[in-house]
Amino acid sequence: xxxxxxxxxxxxxxxxxxxxxxxxxxxxxxxxxxxxxxxxxxxxxxxxxxxxxxxxxxxxxxxxxxxxxxxxxxxxxxxxxxxxxxxxxxxxxxxxxxxxxxxxxxxxxxxxxxxxxxxxxxxxxxxxxxxxxxxxxxxxxxxxxxxxxxxxxxxxxxxxxxxxxxxxxxxxxxxxxxxxxxxxxxxxxxxxxxxxxxxxxxxxxxxxxxxxxxxxxxxxxxxxxxxxxxxxxxxxxxxxxxxxxxxxxxxxxxxxxxxxxxxxxxxxxxxxxxxxxxxxxxxxxxxxxxxxxxxxxxxxxxxxxxxxxxxxxxxxxxxxxxxxxxxxxxx
Length: 331
Ligand code: AMP
Ligand code: TRP
Fold this sequence. Notes:
CATH topology of the largest domain: Rossmann fold
Number of strands: 5
CATH superfamily of the largest domain: HUPs
Bound molecules: adenosine monophosphate, tryptophan
């Protein structure tokens, strides 16, 4: 059996540089080695309130971004989660396999429920990891490339898959997590102690894949740096500069040592100027393609139709086996 890769992004806005470096960019390389399923996880997005109009646009924006960064629809199945109802069905079942204590330990739930308080947080937000386990297990996924904020969810997926197999007989493949050494957690440019996130209050902290060149330059020139000078990589002592250097590394392919050498004796101003140019250069073709797909959304429709049909075919067969194993319904 060929190794299978599954991953996804929530349609809560245009992907940012953190999504790109932490996830999307690796996928472009990995698509040559694996059979791939890339999902637009709209059912996960609605675990916090969403405006319906923005959801539709956001869903197409993610599809556009997937293609614009270089995912090849001839190699990958790109689809919308809610168009394959088996995800919801297996998500429910996973909710019967998972324990409350396990779900309560999920840091994403703790973080996201902090704002409104636990009492007022949605049940769906709590159950989020059960649906994510379903996404992954439905396809006999062997590898899940994600940013490091998803590590705990993939570990829970492995646990639930194993528990199901032990209880009901071999049904699911247990997936491996794939995390990059550098770039699994890109930090905000404005608050380097927080990860770059669509919900960052400071718009200057986040570079969106559709930002124009001047906006990118403006955000990078305003990026927070560390108190002592010098372009050297030290995650604990110089977290802000380490983050900017990681971005530089991903945009150019230069190693961190090469970057240190290149900027020996130079100040933050020179470094930021150069960083702004390499980011602008790297993102320009991507931004242009995103714009094309926004103007020609019909180009996305065939890709999403094809992805949905391919995904449904696999998901339907797996759900037949799951129902059979659990004694659900009739023969
Ligand atoms: P999301 O937009 O939350 O659906 O995330 C999509 C993917 O991007 C997941 O694999 C995340 O782990 C990854 N990701 C999100 N934010 C970052 C970040 N700041 N740095 C690295 N990866 C990230
Ligand atoms: N929870 C992931 C995130 O916030 C998105 C996601 C949902 C996902 N289902 C998945 C990622 C399955 C990988 C595999 O980024």
